[in-house]
Amino acid sequence: MTPVSGPLGDWLPVERVSADEPRFRMRFGEHHIGNPMIRAVHGGVSAAVIEAVAQAAARHELGEAVDVELVSSSIDYLRVTKDTDLHAKAVTARTGRRLAFVDVWCWQDDEDTPVVRGTCTLRIQAAT
Amino acid sequence: MSGHKSSLLADRTGRRTGSTGTPASTADQKAKPRPHLAQLFFSAKHPLLSAFHFEFIRTDRDHLATRLEAPEQFVADETRGELHTGFHTLILDTVMGGTVLGSLEQPQPIATIKLTTQHCGRILVGQTIVCAGALQGVRNGVAYVHGEVRTEPGDELIATAVGTFMIGTRAVPLDGSSPGPSMGLRR
Predict the structure, then answer these.
(1) What is the CATH architecture assignment of B33-167?
(2) Which of A87, B13, B115, B163 is the 20 to 30 A CA-CA neighbour of A71?
(3) What are the φ/ψ torsions at residue B120 (nearest 5 degrees)?
């Protein structure tokens, strides 16, 4: 399952890049630019990537028998996000019966130099 | 989620403003209105924001409210026609940042430091929504903003957010050139 499905998958092309680990990449597009003067990616785009990655990581871990829905997210913008691809990895802090808590780290050039990080709370329900 | 009416759209008398914004005095009506910086920044030339077709319904110094139609390209669940929650965060970051821009005496670059969003509901494609921001205060160059997204009609709460923004960032263009004092905004 791709992290972002439906028409949003064209606008926000996020793909899983590792079968073993919850690692993802968003391919940069011109429509992601938020500040044209410094060609920085819009903060809302990074936030959307983090929410999509957290949801995809939880879905992958829990399987298709359940549905996971975003409850909240908290995003920290550590550095300017440049006009290149954005990489992300998810770390599940806890998965309970009803809730999951997933942290997501994003970087561009160097994994040790994150540009955005986020914490997401997700509601787990039986798939409809 | 419903039941709690929006406070971000009401002016100081508690009235909700219409499509022309806050009622202006006779003197204000004679003077040429100063465009809100967000109206300049959310221009048709912006690579991302031009796709949203924001209609400005409140442009006070400390408040910004916009109306828009939920665009199809953010649909993540085609069966239900629901937009991804990332759309909530995207427009909240935009409008809350625009609220900060509108409060500035002079155009300055701003950057989001932190954005916390509660996703209370979901938006359906084509639905009309109102996204509003209210500046809560500024301290040491950091602006604190509340924001929310509601449906219209229905006034159903979709998302609430708290954002902090750095005013006057030191960010320079990635090619090393100067961003200039105008931030690319043309009056």
Answers:
(1) Roll (3.10)
(2) A87
(3) -85, -20
Residue A76 banded pLDDT, cuts 50, 70, 90: very high
CA separation for the pair B138, B11 (Å, rounded): 20
**Whole-angstrom distance, CA of residue B114 vs CA of residue A118:** 9
Give the chain A residue nearest B174 (alpha carbons): A38
Question: At A20, which CATH number?
Answer: 3.10.129.10
Q: Give the ipTM.
A: 0.94
B84 vs A48: CB contact, 8 Å cut-off? Answer: yes
Q: Is B184 a residue whose pLDDT tops 60?
A: no
How many domains does chain A divide into? 1
First to last CA, chain A: 17
B-facing residues of A in 27-86 (CB < 8 A) are 30-40, 42-45, 47-49, 51-52, 70-77, 80, 82-83
In a domain, A77, yes or no: yes
Q: Quick check: is A114 in a domain?
A: yes
Task: Collect all residues from B whose CB is shorter than 8 A from any CB in A.
Answer: 46-48, 51, 72-78, 83-87, 89-94, 97, 109, 111-119, 171-175, 179-180, 183-184
